């Protein structure tokens, strides 16, 4: 159902189309009366001189102008009122002034103003009528006015002036009543439409006065609240006893601050939850909306409980994996120890076949131990039980140690492993094992996805208190779809062969270790163009100083020192460490 109120420019033509406008009827009647008076004047003994006919013409002119200029705007209406004032006062002056037969026409602007749509025009008409009457009176007193007609002609002219003016005022009254009736009908229609809309609301709208007196109720009441209860007991009486004090405080807050909101349990349904929003619309007057939020509240509770259960399940899984990983490491260490004794032939020689088996057992045990360590670390991180063992050390040592451990893997894969380190110390405050694990995981992933003959480069440098480790490879790259998933636990990229060689915990551990240090990990890759992984950790203690270039103690360099490559060798202080495939 739609309710529409037509604006004035649309309503007026519609009203005119419905029937003859009373204002136009009065103007036509005015002209007809003048014509009849003129005809009657012809049959009188003394038809008067030119002044009588000029007076009749002055009175007819504004009526004709009103019928010709029908446009209803401010300027036209004001001009027509002036014409009515001039015509009426001129007719009065020409027939003897304010004591003459047509003195009533001085009220012509008042009669004309009463037929207009603008009530304020009455004041303008009255002012113009007063001015016209004053002009007629001054003309009469000064002796400039023609002699007033007498006899039957005076009667005809007086009757004409009184009748036309009286009909004009009566037409104005009729028009005003019609307009008021139409306005009342329109307002009634609008009120009915608003009431229909309010009654159709899915919530309950209320008007509140004072400390909780409900003066109006519209809409659908929520369960546990009735209209009669609100009207008879007030807003606070509709709430459960335990919530009434809070509701009273909220009403006072709405009066004081302009708005207030709260939830409470209704007195007739304490198991339900109702939300109330109140706004101040006038001094000591509030409007509010009551709505049932029991389903929403239950849904929120269910979601909260589901989140708590999921967190408990995840924590339990993490504890289980941590405990199982710990239990698996004990027998695995024994297996690796015994296989290592067999490889070293500490208790006598072995045949080539058994020696090969011992080597495979030790290699598989090492791989399994790495996987278990990854699972253990990730479980501790997810369970928020992983604690960094921070210490001050040279980050280059951890990077070089990790690269030495991966030398055999790079030789087997036929990939050149190259390290670019600064000549000066990189003193950091970090977890040595975590930093070493970051390099191991990144380089291991790079070797896995780099074909034979490729290259993996590890770069470490520092600037502005940040240690940055960059591992770049010339491998197959990562697709955009896989790139979005990487970094989450147990997510892997590549084909089935690469996925079978890991658990998908490498990059997630790197990201987790970086976050624990307050840093971040970023991956840049393109299919066929290799991958670059950067890890930035805010753990650098001192600015990097070149070994051969002294730096003033008053100002630390803002840019990292240049990495000057040196011929590869086995010494610790070299800038470049390269492991070429054998």
From TrEMBL:
CDD domains: HATPase_EvgS-ArcB-TorS-like, HisKA. Keywords: Kinase, Membrane, Phosphoprotein, Transferase, Transmembrane, Transmembrane helix, Two-component regulatory system. The chain crosses the membrane at residues 25-43, 50-69, 81-110, 122-141, 153-176. PROSITE patterns: HIS_KIN. InterPro entries: HATPase_C_sf (IPR036890), HATPase_dom (IPR003594), His_kinase_dom (IPR005467), HisK_dim/P_dom (IPR003661), HisK_dim/P_sf (IPR036097), Sensor_HK_Regulatory (IPR050736), Sig_transdc_His_kin-like_C (IPR004358). Residues 323-541 form the Histidine kinase domain. It comes from the Bacteria. It catalyses: ATP + protein L-histidine = ADP + protein N-phospho-L-histidine. Its EC number is 2.7.13.3. Pfam families: HATPase_c (PF02518), HisKA (PF00512). The keyword 4Fe-4S does not apply. GO terms for molecular function: phosphorelay sensor kinase activity. PANTHER family: HISTIDINE KINASE, TWO-COMPONENT HISTIDINE KINASE. This is histidine kinase.
């Amino acid at each position: 159902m739609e309710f529409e109120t037509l604006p004035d420019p649309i309503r007026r033509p519609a009203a005119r189309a419905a029937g003859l406008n009373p204002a136009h009827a009065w103007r036509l009647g005015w002209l007809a009366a003048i014509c009849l008076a003129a005809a009657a004047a012809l049959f009188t003994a003394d038809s008067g001189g030119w002044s009588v006919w000029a007076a009749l013409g002055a009175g007819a002119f504004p009526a004709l102008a009103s019928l010709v200029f029908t446009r209803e705007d401010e300027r036209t209406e004001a001009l027509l009122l002036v014409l009515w004032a001039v015509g009426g006062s001129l007719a009065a002056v020409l027939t003897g002034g304010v004591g003459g037969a047509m003195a009533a026409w001085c009220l012509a602007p008042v009669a004309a103003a009463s037929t207009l749509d603008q009530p304020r025009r009455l004041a303008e008409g009255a002012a113009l009528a007063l001015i016209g009457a004053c002009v007629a009176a001054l003309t009469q007193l000064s002796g400039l006015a023609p002699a007033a007609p007498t006899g039957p002609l005076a009667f005809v002219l007086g009757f004409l002036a009184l009748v036309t003016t009286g009909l004009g005022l009566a037409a104005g009254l009729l028009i005003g009543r019609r307009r008021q009736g139409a306005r009342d009908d329109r307002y009634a229609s609008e009120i009915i439409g608003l009431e229909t809309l309010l009654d159709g609301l899915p919530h309950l709208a209320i008007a509140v006065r004072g400390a909780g007196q409900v003066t109006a109720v519209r809409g659908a009441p929520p369960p546990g609240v009735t209209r009669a209860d609100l009207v008879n007991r007030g807003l606070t009486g509709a709430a459960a006893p335990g919530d009434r004090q809070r509701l009273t405080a909220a009403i006072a807050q709405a009066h004081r601050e302009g708005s207030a909101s709260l939830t409470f349990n209704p007195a007739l349904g304490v198991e339900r939850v109702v939300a109330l929003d109140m706004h101040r619309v006038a001094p000591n007057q509030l409007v509010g909306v009551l709505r049932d939020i029991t389903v929403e509240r239950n849904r929120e509770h269910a979601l909260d409980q589901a989140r708590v259960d999921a967190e408990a399940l995840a924590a339990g899984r993490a504890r289980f994996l941590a405990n199982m990983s710990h239990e698996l490491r004990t027998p695995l260490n024994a297996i690796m120890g015994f296989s290592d004794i067999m490889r070293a032939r500490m208790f006598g020689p072995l045949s080539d076949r058994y020696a090969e088996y011992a080597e495979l057992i030790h290699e598989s045990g090492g791989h399994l131990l790495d996987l278990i360590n990854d699972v253990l670390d990730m479980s501790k991180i997810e369970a928020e039980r992983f604690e960094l063992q921070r210490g001050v050390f040279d980050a280059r040592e951890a990077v070089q140690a990790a690269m030495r451990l991966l030398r055999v893997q790079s030789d087997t894969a036929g990939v050149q492993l190259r390290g670019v380190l600064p000549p000066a110390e990189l003193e950091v405050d970090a977890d040595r094992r975590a930093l070493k694990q970051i390099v191991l995981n990144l380089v291991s992933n790079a070797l896995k996805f780099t074909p034979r003959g490729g290259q993996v480069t590890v770069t470490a440098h520092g600037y502005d208190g940040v240690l940055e480790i960059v591992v770049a490879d010339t491998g197959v790259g990562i697709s955009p779809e896989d790139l979005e998933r990487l970094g989450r636990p147990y997510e892997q990229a590549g084909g089935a062969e690469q996925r079978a060689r890991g658990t998908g915990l490498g990059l997630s551990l790197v990201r987790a270790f970086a976050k624990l240090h307050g840093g971040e990990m970023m991956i840049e890759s393109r299919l066929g163009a290799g991958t670059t992984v950067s890890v930035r950790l805010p753990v650098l203690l001192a600015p990097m100083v070149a070994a051969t270039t002294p730096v003033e103690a008053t100002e630390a360099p803002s840019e990292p020192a240049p990495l000057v490559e040196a011929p590869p060798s086995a010494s610790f202080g070299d800038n470049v460490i390269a492991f070429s495939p054998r």
